[in-house]
Every structure is written in structure tokens, then in C-alpha cells.
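Ticket reopened. Same input as before:
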Amino acid sequence: MAVFSSDALSSVAYATEEILRALVLAGLGALTLGLPVAFAIALLFFTVTFSYRQTVFAYPSGGGSYIVAKDNLGLIPGLTAGAALLIDYILTVAVSVSSGIAAVTSAVPALYGHRVALCLLAVLLLVIGNLRGVRESGNIFSIPTYLFIASILVMNAVGIARWVLGGLPPAPAPSPPTGTLAPLTAFLVLRAFAGGCSALTGVEAISNGIQAFYEPVSKNAAKTLVYMAVLAVSMFLGISFLAHVLGIAPRETETVVSQIAHGVFGNSIFYYIVQAATMLVLVLAANTSFADFPRLSSILGRDGFLPRQFANRGDRLVFSNGIVILGLISAVLIVYFGGQTHSLIPLYAIGVFLSFTLSQSGMVVHWWRRRHEDPKWLTHAVINGTGAVVTFVVFVIEGVTKFTLGAWVVVVLIPLLVVVFLSIRRHYDAVAEDLRMDPAEVKVKPVRHIVVVPIAGIHRAVAATLAYARSLSDDIRAVHVAVNPEEAEKIRTKWEKWDTGIPLTILPSPYRSLTRPLLDYIDGIQQKEKAAVVTVVIAEFLPRRWWQFLLHNQSALWLTTILHFRPNTVVVNVPYHLKH
Amino acid sequence: MAVFSSDALSSVAYATEEILRALVLAGLGALTLGLPVAFAIALLFFTVTFSYRQTVFAYPSGGGSYIVAKDNLGLIPGLTAGAALLIDYILTVAVSVSSGIAAVTSAVPALYGHRVALCLLAVLLLVIGNLRGVRESGNIFSIPTYLFIASILVMNAVGIARWVLGGLPPAPAPSPPTGTLAPLTAFLVLRAFAGGCSALTGVEAISNGIQAFYEPVSKNAAKTLVYMAVLAVSMFLGISFLAHVLGIAPRETETVVSQIAHGVFGNSIFYYIVQAATMLVLVLAANTSFADFPRLSSILGRDGFLPRQFANRGDRLVFSNGIVILGLISAVLIVYFGGQTHSLIPLYAIGVFLSFTLSQSGMVVHWWRRRHEDPKWLTHAVINGTGAVVTFVVFVIEGVTKFTLGAWVVVVLIPLLVVVFLSIRRHYDAVAEDLRMDPAEVKVKPVRHIVVVPIAGIHRAVAATLAYARSLSDDIRAVHVAVNPEEAEKIRTKWEKWDTGIPLTILPSPYRSLTRPLLDYIDGIQQKEKAAVVTVVIAEFLPRRWWQFLLHNQSALWLTTILHFRPNTVVVNVPYHLKH
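Engineering reply: fixed in the latest deploy. New output:
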């Protein structure tokens, strides 16, 4: 299933670069450590894969970290995993799009200055496409993934073959880093390792989307998971190896993959195929977040931890709110970080590893609970336990080595989000408690209400409004606020000629305020006749052209706003459609 | 009256600089022409002053260009003058504030980089001050004007005295302008003249604000006008003369006045007094626009050429709409032009001279009409005629020499605004015609209406909403849109237990849309029972904290918006105050 793999596979496009970017701080010589670090990450990748393979079998109906952690560890760990995942879906969009556009600007350096605009365009297209309900129809969407796999594998094969045959010239000597070099400490190596761990993002996508597989789903999903891991690790190791033998150092304006492709293919058509495939697979990876983020927020909305609106599908059967919010936040991130992948990476991955840890720990509890039914429970628990411990160690490494680079934001944000989730749920619970009633006990009796109609003049719109008010109640009071006393006198005279049977009160307004005298008048009514609801009926002009709205209704709008928050007051805007 | 003079007097702070900025394009040698150009402007100043002196006598109740031109020349010239003035009030704020902040950044060069922020801060303070209804209490506001007059006159006197005594060292030799020099053509001299004509802006302020003078108003206002002209011209000529003898060329980061003050006073306290007084008087000049712009737009609003809302005073007796709009547009201009006075100047003054011309031509017609009553009419007419001809010539010079520098914007904008004024008036007239009725002929009969109550669940808020709906009508229909069929079944069961006497219709929603089935249902009702108004009563939750709004009502809001534009449909939001 190419669709779910795109997220995990695409991260090899930037993982090697992140290792080298950390190591180069200690000088070009330190870059030789890139290969051992890459091997460590490959090992980690397989550990996590085997751990997740078990989740696929245990949760054939889809086991996202939120569900697994909530089921087995409890509410708070579940919400923590949910918060971590929401943050990481946003970052996936920002990182993947930035990195995809970096593949474009590496090939066409003239576009480098426009990278933020290009990133925003890509996000906009993703939002529009997903709002229109693009189905993840495997066929079309799998092409970029297969193209990417093929082009990277071919590049690696050709590169290694040329190296073996001695025909691979080293890349142009990189300029040594400026400024003072950092000492090559264990901390720096760990930071390189943490950066490279971004290769593991997306591994969980298969266990989330398990229901999209053919029967037997678990078996097929598990198989796909292993294939995907083997492919990802071999692509990643190949890239890291070629970067090593070509002596490539990270550059500001060209990605490491682009440098390798240049080294292997020169400026031929194959180079451009690699770049195009990289760009496409990264945009596709961002697209998976546009399915995952709205789905998770709809589950959280359904459970009452996010506004209920997230749980409602729009008319096109997509979760429009989640899509728009994901697009907006990731666009802000892209602008803030100037579309630079490596500036976003320190925030990334930490949330992924937290949710890995919670999910795998949850699986350990899951097996422990099934210890009487499942004779192999201990083997399962040990595999998931290993996964949990390893990912927890990586989580700590991520947090410590990247803390000052930006990871602190995520460390602060996750508990904050959990608090927000809980507050929302507490509010909904309290409201539901207040609103609960036994239908058999509550009688619906009409309330006594008085209708107040503010009158600005004597004309057809007022006549229509009064006619409508008549149909609501027999107790109608017309009022005119005398902002202009001469005008008020004219209205009084005309009113007397008008046989409405409705009394008109002229309210003096010494300070020319429209609202104050009216509010006082309504106060007066409500004090005299307790428990009465006052319905204020206001004429509203609906003109035929949008700009004409600016010419009408400002007073009506202001009055409506002011009255809206008064208890026992209902405002009714009666539309009057203008012919002009 | 220091308040009204601040606008006219303050323009001497940048007028000389604008002359020199044009001349320096032809090289440093061309700067010697600054003095003759300044004398021509001084002559123009007196011509305009004497022309306006007559307006003051003829319109003792205040003769703004809009009123004078409309009364004597007709509607279109009146609106043209009105448009020109509105634009110039906006530019006065932008130019005066930019120039005032330039006085600050000349004295404290470290602030130069923050000049846009400082300008916006000044505009914000002016908006807030005027919204709170700062009275133009002469005493406080006259201090900066007197301080400015005194400091400039002292600077000129000391400077000239030192020059006569031979003790005035020339300013540091200015660096010659880079790039190719323009030839010193008559066109360039006229452009310098046009730039310097910004000195005349603000002359009309006294005839606008005439009612603020003591009795006999016309005599006092005329006297003030002449004093003001003498002061302004002598300050302007003094500055131009000192700029000449000091050999000063305009600089990017220091104003000409600041350079002169440095030359005369060195870095002493007197230098800083000149700069502070300049800044204060310019901010005060911007403040006069905050009185003039809202006043003119309220007159235009009262006459139906701008939205009527402009004519309404707020609760603090200020025209809040005009103040806010003036602040916003001038802030946009300041940001767009980077807070640079000389970039704004090409747009400025052209509108002023157009309104001068229209106002003085109007006065000529005024005297012609009074030719049988007033024996001196010819003298008056000749003076105003001279004013009209001279200001028209300057208007043409302004338009031609600054056209490509930005004046074209104003040339396009003024007729456009006149068209907008006329369209607004035409709309209001058409609406008034439609709405007109004879009270004796129109009967207010209640309309037959049907109340529809959408039900999201069975709870207390719905009970309250139904009770309210009961009080509106006996014909109530409860509906539930079955977005979730299981939920709908539960509601049906509960409803049957509930003794409301109101029928419940469950609307199927195969596409999970909330609005579509409801709209179809209302269509159905309206087709069956023609001429009936449908009132849709929707419960609205009012929580206690603002952020909780995000957790409720999105569906209600969406429904309200959709229904709002349907004919014969009234939406009533019944507030339900939550305890949590």
C-alpha cells in the first residue's frame, strides 16, 4: 500500500541531511561519523517496526496511539498521545512541504528566493484538494511513491556500482563551516542521531490506516509494514553511504539528496527525475496528514475533548474544520521558519517518539491483560516492551539534545493541550448535566412576552415590521429614540395619522445616544412585569448589491449586538428586501 | 487662535525642504534658486490669504470649500471640493505625522529605523484621544504652536544676526547627489515651486472653523488669518534664507530645519527645543484633520453622499466612524510610503489647490449674485477672482509636475469619489422613494406565519426554546435533521414521552448535511401555504466565558447565516444562558 508508506519512506529524503547538519558543526572531519549513526538508526527502525507489527495484529480495526494508550494506560496517557500526534501531523505538513520544495529549489536554484511562496501554494492546493474530498484512490497516489522508491534505489545502485568500479568522482570540495567549531562531544553525536531519527516518522501510519487493507487485513498490513521498513532502511543507508563516499557536506541552498543525484547522474534527465519524485512523494506525505489530523480531531471532538464541530462531517463528507485548521497552522509555521526544513526538525520527531512510547507501553499492558488467554503473551510483551524502552530512550535524547533548539515548545505545548482537552470535556459535561431533563416532567408552557419595535421613521419597511410583530403578540410597543428632537416631532405627527392601534413612545435622548434610552426603557418594562421576555423586533434592509450593505443597518447591527447579551431579551431582525 | 493656525504654520517645517529636494536633482549649484522660488511662494501665500479673508466675511457661519462651491457653483463642483478635501485631510495626517517623527529622528538618529512604528504610535494616540473626545481646549493646545513660532523666529533671528556679524560657519559640505544630474529646466523649477506650495496647506482651516472665534467672529477670524499669514511667510522665508546662506542640501536622515538648527545652535539645548516644538506642532496639525475629516464626512453623510452612519455622533458626541477611518487610511499610507514625508508630498497639495480654486471661484459667483445689494461687489470679485486664477494655475502646475510622481493617484481618485458620492445618494433616493407611504392608507395587519424549531436533542434549552416559540404562534413544527440515524431514533422515542402537543418531523439526511434537508423542508412549507412567513427559532447557548463560545453554536450560526438571505424567512436566536 503505497499511500501509507509515503510518509515513512519520504522521510529518508531529509534524515541523512539532518545527521550531517549536526555533525558538521564539529568540522568537516566529523562527517565520517555519519555512517555509524545511520546504522544505529537503521537498527532502531527495525525494532520499532517489529513492535508495531504486533499492534497491527492486536488492533485489526485500527490502533492509533490515542486509542491504544487510552484503552490500556488510561485517559491522561491517551490524551498525551493525542496531543503529541496532533502536533506532529501539523509538523509533518510543514516539514514535508518545506523539504519537497527544497527538492525543487535544489534543481532550480532561481526559485530559492520564492520557497516560502511555493510552500504556501503547495499547502493551499492540499487544503483545496482535501476540502473537495480527494479520495486516496490508490492508483494515482501510488505512482509518486513507486517512482520515488525506484529512482532512489537506482541512484543508490548506480552510485555504489560506480564507486566499486572506481568511476565515481568525489563531489566538489565543500567549503569548511565558518565560525568556531564545536567540539565533537557525545552530545553532538546524540544530536546527530536525534536529527536522523526523523527517518522513523510515519511508521505508525500503517497501524492507523489498517482498515484500508484487503482481507486478511492484519496479515497484509503486517507484511506491508515489514516491506516498507526494509525499503526505507535500505534507501536511507544507501543515501548515507553515498553521502559518505562522495564526501558531501550539507549546504544551505541544495539538499544532500540533490548533491548525491548530481554526483551520480550529473546534470542528466535522471537527476531531474530523482528531484521530481522526491518532491511528489513529500507532498503526498503531507497529504496523509490531511487525512490523519482531521480524523484524530474528529475522534477527540466526538469524545468531547475538542469542539464538537470537529466531529461533524461537512456536506462533502470531509472534516472541513480539521482540514482548514491544519492548513492554517502549518502555513504559519512555514512562514515563521522561512520554509527551512532544518529549522523545523528540532520540533519534529519528539512528539512522534512520545506517542511511540505511549503506544508501545500500552501494548505491554494489553498483553499483560491477555496473559490468561494468549500463551505467547510474554514474547509479545517483551517485543513491545523493548520497543517502548528504546523509543522512550530516543524520546529523552530528542528532548535533551534539541531542547534549546525548539523542542521546548513541543515539551510545553503537549501538557498544555492536555489541559485544554480536559477543560473542554469538563465544560461539555457540566453543560450536559445542566441541560438534562426528564421529558415526562417538563411542561412546555408559553412564556408571557412583550414586543418592542424601535421605529426610525414612518415608511413601508416599518409597516412590514409592525405587521410581522403583530403576528407575534398582541402586546406591542413602538418606540422612537429622539436623537433629533425635530425629527421625533415629525414622526409623532405622522404616527397619529396612522391607524395602527399600537402605542408609540418617544424616548428623549439628551446625549444623542441611540442605545442608552432604549436599554433603560427595556429595563423599565422588565422591572414592572417580572419574568416577561422582551422581544425586540428590528427592521433590517437587505439590498441587492453587497456594497449597499455598508449604507444600511449599522444602527440595527449595533443594537442587535448590544441586546444580544441581555438576559430575557430576544432580538428578531425582520429582513426587508430592497428593490434597489 | 493657535489651534487653527497650527496646520498652516507647521507646513513651513517641510516646505523649504521640498523646494531643495527638487532643485538638488540638477546638482548642488541649482540650490541657489531656492530663495527666488521661496519668494514666489510667499507672494502666492498673501494672494490666497486675502482671497480667503473675503470668505471669512461672507460666510460667518463657516465656509468650507464644499459648502461655498456647492452653494455657488452647483453640486458637482461642491462634491469635487469635498472629495479633494477628504483626500487632503488624510494626507495631512500622513504628511504631518511623518514630518513630525522626522524631527524626532533627526535629533535622535538611532530612532530612524523605527520611524514607521513611531508614526503609527502617533496616529494611534491621535485616534484614541479623539475617540475619547479631546476638546480643542485652546490653552493646552496653543502651547506647542506658540513654542514653535517662538523657536523658529528666534532661530531665524539668531541665524541672520550671526550671518550679518560673519560668525555663522557654513554647514558641513553636502555630498553631491549620486547618479546622472537632471538638466536645470523650467520644468524642474516649477516642480520645486509645486513642492514648496505645500506651505499653503492649512490656510483654509480658519474659514472652516470660524464659529470657534469670539464675537465679532468674522473680524477676529480675518485678523487671525492675516497675522497667521505674516507669521508663516516670515518663518518660511527665514528658513529658506538660512538654508541658502548655510549652503544646506536635503539629506535622507536629517531634515533641513534640523540642519539649520544645528548650524545656528550647534548641539545645545536650543537645538532640541526647536526639534521638540516642530514635532509637537506637526502632531497638532495632524490633530486638526481629526476634527475636520469627521466633520466634513458627517456633512456629506447628512446630505446622503456618504453612508448615513457618518452623520451619527457616538455616545461621546464625536463622529467615531470618521475618526477611525481617517486613522486607518493614514496608517496604511504611512506604512506604504515608509514614513517618508517627501514620498507623500507629490500626492499632497494638489487637492488643496483644487479646493482653493473651487472655493474662490464660488466666491466670485457669490459676489456676482450680490451685485445689486453690495456696491463693493466688483472689488471683492476681483480679489477672489485673482485668488481663483492663481490657485488654478498652481493646481495645474502641481498636477503636471508631480503627475508621474504620484499625483495621478489623486487625479484619478477625486472623480472616482464624486461618482461614489453620487451613487450612494442615488441609492438612498431610490430606497426613500420605495419606502415612502401615506400613513392614512397603509393598514398594519398581522401576517400569517408558521414557526419551525430545529431540535438537536431533548434538553432544557430546547424546552425553553419551545416555550418561547409557543408564545409566538400556535402553529409550531419541531424538526430534527437525522445526520445520525441512531441519534434520531433516540430523539423520536424521547419526544413521544414528552407531552408538548407539538408535532416532530424527522428529516432524513442521506449526505449528512444539516442545512440542505431543513431548507428543502422550509421550501415545502412555503410552497404549500403561500404568503406565509416562516419563523425559524434556534436555541443559542450563551456561556459565561468567551472561549466557551467556540464550543457551541457553530451549527446555529451557520444555519442563521444561510437562512438570513432567504425571502419570507425570519430567524430568531433564543439565548440560553449557561451556568457554566
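The mean pLDDT of chain A is 86. Residues 269-302 of chain A form the longest helix (34 residues). Please confirm and we'll close it.
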